[in-house]
Write a structure and sequence with these properties.
Elements (H helix, E strand, L loop, with lengths): L15 H20 L6 H8 L3 H8 L2 H15 L9 H17 L3 H12 L3 H28 L8 H19 L5 H16 L12
Helix pairs in contact: 1-2, 1-4, 1-6, 2-3, 4-7, 5-6, 5-7, 5-8, 5-9, 6-7, 7-8, 8-9
């Protein structure tokens, strides 16, 4: 998966409704960065965005609704998968984009806040899951292309390989709280790719007898 825009306030133009949404999502991200999900209130966001409280309640309904729309916007802004011509290059591009996103002082903190929210709020969890499934599906294409080129075994599970590349990075960010460096990202790619080439990601029904 790759790196969405660092700010949710850069939504596409489209009249007053789009401007209101941009202001509200920017205010939501600001609040998440400063105070986290559990301090998020609808009145606070309305005041920050300069929007009437009635509008915010009617359109987003709850803090989790705000987070859901914010993650949807991140998904919409994300760039397409890389196309370097090799699976190694594509997976490295993926890992480095994840690394940059997690280390970004604004976006990285936003993602951490939403991840924390997802542990106790089902709507936030759904928003996070939807965002990442969209990105995994986008990047799975590079694995499918690699299989077609003969770089990886037939039957390689594309989504699982993409997950395997970024999982160690998120583990360091969220669980062990260690730095997510370029060396860590490239090592994750090397390990996942070695396993994939050895057939570790081939699903049981597709293995040769």
């Amino acid at each position: 998966m790759d790196q969405p825009s660092r700010s949710a306030g850069t939504v596409r133009p489209g009249g007053r409704t789009a401007r209101v949404r941009a202001a509200v999502l920017e205010a939501t991200q600001d609040a998440l960065v400063e105070h986290g999900f559990h301090a998020l209130t609808m009145d606070q966001i309305a005041a920050r965005a300069g929007v009437g409280k009635t509008t915010v309640y009617r359109r987003w309904g709850s803090p989790a609704g705000l987070v859901t729309d914010l993650m949807n916007e991140f998904a919409n802004q994300s760039s397409p998968h890389a196309d370097t011509g090799s699976i190694e290059g594509d997976l490295r591009a993926n890992a480095l984009m994840v690394m940059e996103a997690l280390n970004d002082p604004r976006l990285g903190v936003t993602l951490q806040a939403v991840i924390a929210a997802a542990t106790s709020d089902e709507q936030a969890a759904l928003a996070l899951r939807t965002f990442y499934l969209r990105r995994i599906d986008e990047w799975a294409t590079v694995v499918e292309l690699a299989v077609a080129r003969g770089e990886l075994p037939q039957g390689t599970h594309a989504e699982e390989l993409i997950r395997a590349v970024s999982a160690p990075l998120y583990y360091r960010l969220v669980v062990t709280r260690e730095p997510v460096t370029r060396e860590v990202a490239e090592a994750s790619v090397a390990r996942a790719l070695a396993a994939a080439r050895a057939g570790a990601f081939v699903t049981a029904g597709d293995r040769s007898p």
